[in-house]
Amino acid sequence: MPRAVAGTKRKDHRKKILKLAKGFWGRRSTNHKTAKDAVAKSLSYSYRDRRDRKGQMRRLWITRINAACRAEGLSYSRFVEGMAKANVLVDRKLLSDIAVRDPAAFKAVVERAKSALSA
To answer: CA-to-CA distance for 77 and 65, rounded, in angstroms?
Structure first.
């Protein structure tokens, strides 16, 4: 009776690892032993960076809002303070989008924040 080996499972697992390693440089894309380590590291980086992307986007929104506010003669921190005093509840993502796409509407929001600061 022939000896049974875990051939297909082993081959399938190796194919899966090498498929994930496609595009890696050098032996990391062709050699299972090195590809396994490279794939594990890349998957951990991708998991971490999906979370980091949220913070990066928030920083981008704040930068855009700050630039648009300074064009209106107001700093970002004073703008946020004015928005809080005016009780305007708009998140940074939306404010950034308004600042980029509709400067007239953003100017109205800044004026509202300025009036709340002076009152």
So the answer is: 10
pLDDT digits (tens, 9 = 90+) for 53-71: 999 999 999 999 999 999 9
- Of 85, 76, 77, nearest to 113 by C-alpha is 85
Alpha carbon distance 21, 32 (integer Å): 9
Complete domains list, the chain, with CATH: 7-118 (1.10.1900.20)
Q: Tell me, what's the pLDDT at 62? A: 97
CA distance 65 to 59: 10
What pLDDT does 6 receive? 67
Q: Say which residues have a Cβ less than 8 Å from residue 76's Cβ, sequence separation at least 6.
A: 62, 65, 66, 69, 70
Q: What pLDDT does residue 23 have?
A: 96
Report the C-alpha gap between 45 and 106 in whole angstroms.
Answer: 37
